[in-house]
């Protein structure tokens, strides 16, 4: 009889020992502590989620906004001097007025429209300008339409095309003399772990000429821009490869070409001066210029968003 009695006592002691553990979660104070702990855990997860709502300067391919941009570009490039074996450095200054418009479509889609009106001043040597004097006028105007879809807070995709019209005087070197179509596809990957507003955004373009002056060179360029934007304190930012200037030429060769690849080092530094005003300066020099697009490029941008 003593054996079963001792067993019942041991079981009773075990139940009494576990009772506080069972009853503790039912206590209001304990429940409140658990709720607070759970809320803190959720907040911690949310704080590391990629919200990516940093400053938009009006140059983000996959986050279009209504923008007016004043663009001033300076480029030097070697070209034929007009006589066999001679080289003439051509300087091109382009002042461009750009307008971007965003149209919100049903669901997660957006339509980004762009129109560019360039004014060029350059000194090419040609039959119409044998002495290489500076000439100026309207360049080839172009327009662009891109469909954007935000997949989630981190990923966005976009695809569309750009169309160039041969409005520049090709006899003076102010235009290509060709119609050009340039399809594009891009992917945006937000990187808020670095800073709010930082992202990696590779873009692939293909520039193909069609129609126009048959005496002018055919254009067929694969172009790439591995855009990497890093948002810095005090509304500064730095961008690597802001322009699609990495090129592989599949079209007619140009003066001085020894291969297909043009690979520059392309760098931009800028600052958002106000909620709707941004300034930036881009510098670019070639690393590989088997396909000699330019020797030096600088571009200043003034963006007004609204």
Whole-number total of structural domains: 2
CATH class membership of the largest domain = Mainly Beta
Task: Briefly note the CATH topology name of the largest domain.
Answer: Porin
CA-based shape: globular
Q: What is the assigned CATH homologous superfamily of the largest domain?
A: monomeric porin ompg
CATH 2nd-level architecture of the largest domain: Beta Barrel
* Topology, number of strands: 14
Low-confidence stretches: 1-50
Number of helical segments with 4 or more residues: 2
| Helix-strand topology string | HHEEEEEEEEEEEEEE
Structure report:
The structure is a single chain. The chain is mostly beta strands. It has two domains: 2-47, no CATH class; 67-305, monomeric porin ompg (Porin, Beta Barrel), CATH 2.40.160. 14% of the residues lie in helices and 49% in strands. Strands 1, 2, 3, 4, 5, 6, 7, 8, 9, 10, 11, 12, 13 and 14 form a 14-stranded antiparallel beta sheet that branches. Strand 13 (277-289) and strand 14 (296-305) form a beta hairpin. The longest helix has 22 residues, at 2-23. It starts with a helix and ends with a strand. Residues 1-50 have low confidence and may be disordered.
Topology:
Elements: H1 2-23, H2 28-47, E1 67-80, E2 87-104, E3 109-122, E4 135-138, E5 142-150, E6 155-164, E7 179-190, E8 199-210, E9 220-231, E10 236-240, E11 246-249, E12 261-274, E13 277-289, E14 296-305
Antiparallel strand pairs: 1-2, 1-14, 2-3, 3-4, 3-5, 5-6, 6-7, 7-8, 8-9, 9-10, 9-11, 10-12, 11-12, 12-13, 13-14
């Amino acid at each position: 009889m003593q054996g079963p009695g001792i067993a019942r006592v041991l079981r009773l002691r075990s139940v009494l020992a576990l009772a506080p553990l069972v009853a503790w979660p039912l206590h209001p104070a304990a429940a409140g502590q658990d709720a607070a702990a759970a809320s803190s855990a959720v907040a911690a997860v949310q704080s590391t989620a990629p919200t990516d709502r940093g400053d938009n300067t009006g140059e983000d391919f996959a986050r279009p906004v209504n923008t007016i941009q004043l663009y001033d570009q300076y480029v030097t490039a070697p070209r034929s001097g007009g006589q066999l074996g001679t080289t003439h450095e051509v300087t091109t200054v382009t002042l461009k007025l750009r307008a971007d418009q965003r149209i919100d479509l049903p669901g997660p889609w957006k339509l980004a429209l762009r129109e560019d009106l360039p004014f060029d001043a350059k000194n090419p040597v040609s039959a119409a300008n044998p002495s290489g004097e500076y000439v100026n006028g309207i360049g080839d105007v172009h327009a662009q339409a891109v469909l954007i879809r935000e997949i989630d807070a981190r990923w966005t995709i976009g695809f569309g095309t750009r169309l160039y019209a041969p409005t520049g005087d090709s006899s003076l070197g102010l235009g290509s003399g060709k119609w050009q179509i340039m399809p594009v596809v891009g992917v945006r990957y937000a990187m808020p772990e670095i800073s709010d507003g930082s992202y990696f955004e590779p873009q692939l373009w293909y520039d193909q000429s069609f129609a126009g002056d048959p005496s002018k060179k055919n254009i067929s360029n694969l172009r790439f821009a591995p855009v990497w934007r890093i948002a810095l304190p005090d509304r500064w930012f730095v961008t690597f490869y802001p322009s699609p200037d990495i090129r592989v030429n599949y079209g007619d060769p140009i003066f001085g070409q020894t291969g297909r690849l043009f690979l520059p080092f392309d760098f931009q530094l800028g600052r958002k001066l106000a909620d709707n005003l941004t300034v930036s300066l881009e510098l670019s020099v070639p690393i590989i210029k088997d396909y000699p697009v330019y020797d030096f490029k600088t571009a200043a941008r003034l963006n007004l968003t609204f």
